[in-house]
Amino acid sequence: MKPELIALSQGYASDLARHLKQGPRASLRSAQTLGRRAAILGIQSEQLARIHERSMTALRVSGNKVPLAPRGRKFFNAANAFLEKPRSAAREADDRLDQLQKTLGRRTEELAVANRRLQRRVIRRKVREATFAKTGKERRKCLEESLDLQKHLRQLTHRILAVQENERRKIGGELQDEIVQTLLGINLRLLSLKQADRSDIEAFGKEIASARQLVLRSAKAVRKFARELGRHQQRPRL
User: Fold this and answer.
1) Does 100 have pLDDT greater than 60?
2) How far apart are CA 11 and CA 105, in angstroms?
3) How many Å from the N-terminal Cα to the C-terminal Cα in the chain?
4) 234 and 173 Cβ atoms separated by less than 8 Å
5) What number of other Cβ atoms are within 10 A of residue 35's Cβ?
6) Domain that residue 189 falls in
7) What mean pLDDT do residues 205-222 have?
8) How many domains does the chain have?
9) What is the DSSP secondary structure assignment for residue 62, as one 8-state letter?
10) Residue 33: pLDDT band by 50, 70, 90 thresholds?
11) Within this chain, do residues 84 and 20 fall inside the same structural domain, yes or no?
12) Mean pLDDT across the chain, nearest whole number?
């Protein structure tokens, strides 16, 4: 046995005997001092328990009639408290470490889940950006095609208007010639009627009928001219 342990055992036996002799109200300072020394020496609770049992056995052999067990147990507990504190602290530290490890595991799992969610969001965002870029190109292409179609439509409209204008001029010229000729015919008939022999009723009636036909023909030509102009004046919108 080491000298330090021997000295501690001897001191424990003498302090325990003194404590028991002092009665129930004896101080436990000596037990606490022994517990500090035992903790410094690295003695475990089992070793201190054996030292205590040897000391109690020695007191019983010496014929001590003092009730040893309860007060002796109290003395041992006071000394052993300093040995149990490191164990308790170690157990608490282990418990805290286990708790921290569990918490770290949960946090790691939560972080992994959050990371996977973030990756999915990044992928969805990239897909949306690619879709938006593609849609933007398609929109620009559609806009360019629309502008080209509008330009072509304007050119086509201008050509249609030019054709319509030529048609109006052509129709106007033709109708104008027809009306002029009809009016000249009416004028000639009127002159003929003015110079005709009114005594010949039958011939005079024929001249009047012929003049009337020319007037009707002229009115019909004017209506036709008006319809043609109205139809060709309906211009297409740009």
Assistant:
1) no
2) 50
3) 118
4) no
5) 24
6) 151-232
7) 77
8) 2
9) T
10) very high
11) yes
12) 78
